[in-house]
Write a structure and sequence with these properties.
Strand order of the largest sheet: 3-2-1-4-6-5
Order of helices and strands: HEHEHEHHEHEEHHHHHEEH
Helix content: 40-55%
Structural class: alpha/beta
Number of domains: 2
Number of helices: 12
Oligomer: single chain
Strand content: 5-15%
CATH architecture of the largest domain: 3-Layer(aba) Sandwich
CATH class of the largest domain: Alpha Beta
CATH topology of the largest domain: Rossmann fold
Number of strands: 8
Shape: elongated
Largest sheet: 6 strands, mixed
CATH superfamily of the largest domain: P-loop containing nucleotide triphosphate hydrolases
Length: 290
């Protein structure tokens, strides 16, 4: 399946960001630590040309800890200031503020040399559901922006003043018109950066099974309490050679996702699996490797 999602408000958001970025001293880009490459919008590179950059690999608590360290090293070797964190957790604010100060040190010194208080403006951007509003609320120390665990909540621009002379511009989550390869869209769909209403959740759940079985074999059977043999028996019953179908069928049986005729309710099982995966209940997974 080819995953694409680029509603009209994203075109307007990119235009707004181009108009607003001129006074920004710093661009803070949020990516998802589970897919550090697919969750980086290439349009932000062109938008940020000539600006200081800070990459925040957010939701690190949902990602593989060893992979977090490797990705941080990878981006730092590219010369990109990188912070790995969970923006909602205590401690994230300090790490991000310290990185911001390092990147804007020269600007702050110039302001003070002119007898002015340091004034720093930073644009916060990233793909939908990356946690931008959560990060801003953490830095502000209060709920100054609306947050929900779904894409498309932030729609307009919003400047937020912090207590130390820093101003943050909260921007809508934006994707790009066409992905270079279908894996990018697939990964974004898996973590919830697209509107699920537009997706075939059963197909996406089967792909999630395939990815997890390849990278973290046994994680699903351990969490949901079925054996490989049970999944294989269900494959045979469904007359398919796709192991992922057997796994989803086994999950449906274990969690009571059954429809009339004692048949697996694949749609219900698919939604449950994706919800568990996205929420980190099954485990900490990184599906793109450094």
């Amino acid at each position: 399946m080819d995953y694409q999602w680029y509603p009209g408000h994203m075109t307007k958001a990119i235009r707004m960001m181009r108009e607003q970025i001129a006074p920004a001293d710093l661009v803070i880009e949020l990516a998802d630590a589970r897919i550090p490459l697919s969750s980086r919008n290439p349009d932000i590179d062109s938008l940020s040309e000539g600006k200081k950059r800070l990459l925040v690999l957010n939701k690190a608590d949902l990602a593989d800890e060893a992979q977090n360290r490797r990705w941080e090293q990878h981006f730092r070797e590219q010369g990109l200031e990188t912070v790995v964190c969970n923006a909602a957790a205590p401690g994230a604010e300090k790490k991000i503020r310290e990185a911001m100060k390092r990147l804007t040190k020269e600007k702050a010194e110039r302001d003070r040399a002119k007898g002015m208080n340091a004034q720093i403006k930073a644009m916060v951007c990233g793909v939908p559901n990356a946690g931008k509003s959560t990060l801003i609320n953490r830095l502000a120390g209060s709920a100054v922006t609306k947050t929900e665990n779904r894409p498309g909540v932030t729609r307009g621009k919003q400047w937020i003043s912090l207590s130390d002379g820093v101003k943050l511009l909260d921007t809508p989550g934006v994707l790009w018109p066409k992905f270079e390869d279908k894996t990018t869209g697939e990964h974004l769909a898996l973590i919830g950066s697209m509107n699920d209403v537009n997706l075939d959740m059963e197909t996406l759940a089967l792909r999630a099974v395939e990815v997890l079985e390849e990278l973290y074999p046994g994680a699903l059977s351990s969490f949901y309490g079925f054996t490989k043999e049970e999944a294989e028996e269900r494959m045979e019953a469904e007359q398919t050679d796709l192991f992922a179908v057997g796994v989803l069928s086994a999950i449906a049986a274990k969690r009571g996702c059954i429809r009339r005729g004692a048949l697996p309710d694949y749609e219900k099982a698919a939604v449950m699996l994706l919800t568990d995966f996205r929420g980190g209940r099954i485990g900490r997974f990184t599906i793109e490797r450094a």
